[in-house]
Protein 1
Amino acid sequence: MQAAFEEAKKGLGEGGIPIGSVLVRDGKIIGRGHNKRVQSGDPTAHAEIDCLRNAGRIGSYDDCILYSTLSPCFLCSGAAMLFKIPKVVLAEHKNFMGGEAVMRAHGIEVVNVKEPEITEFFGEWTKKHPELWDEDIGELKHGLKGHEFMHHKKVHRKLTSKR
Ligand SMILES: [Zn+2]
């Protein structure tokens, strides 16, 4: 979990959403990642997805554990279910409750190790960036407008090339 927390802090250092994840097999980290929504402009670039991408094609996940600094959302819970990852370990769900019940219903062992340091770290961040966080979990009400929207580099390029 400490390595996942390091990833979260790396994400923060890049101006991103500070959630980190690692994939472990036989006690060894075989993949690591952090949320890159802001950095890459990709709404699906969640920490767990980035971690699985970085681990590459490993074939089977039946001896793997997926660690995340936050309760995995439905997207990431879905990835764990799809790839039949048998165990998911999370640091907290006080700031956000993801798909834990759905994962358990699919036979995944879900363990919340309750790390107060990580809970506080992420809670502080969501207080400072409520809109960015709402966007990440699909809670933003009216999409991005005006100058925020222009920050999306592809849209920005499209608009400017039409002039
Ligand atoms: Zn997610």
Protein 2
Amino acid sequence: MTTPPIVMTEQEKLLMQQILKKHSLQCSRCHLPIEELDCYCRHCGKALRPYMGFWYDHGGIFLCTLIAGPVSLLPLWLSRKLGIRAKICWSAGILLASVYILYALRQSYLLFKQAFSLMM
Ligand SMILES: [Zn+2]
């Protein structure tokens, strides 16, 4: 015994299409379909999960350190791309660089102060 084929009305077909469209995941950048467990888009490489984008990788952390100094510790420790050893190494580097920059700023301030006191 065979089951009769399912006959859908136009309205039902439209509803079915809407449901399928809603549930099929797609990349927010290239709009191509992606799988639920993908971490990156298979088509354009966009990071699909939080804390995995450019700012959470080595290049992003470096750039953030250049722009905002020790603020880059935030994306560093939120990152899911870097391991604990990389995070510790980066933290030490960022802190050393910050201390050096503060020291250099203080030295240049003292130099300016001395130069101005000689002019007066
Ligand atoms: Zn994509």
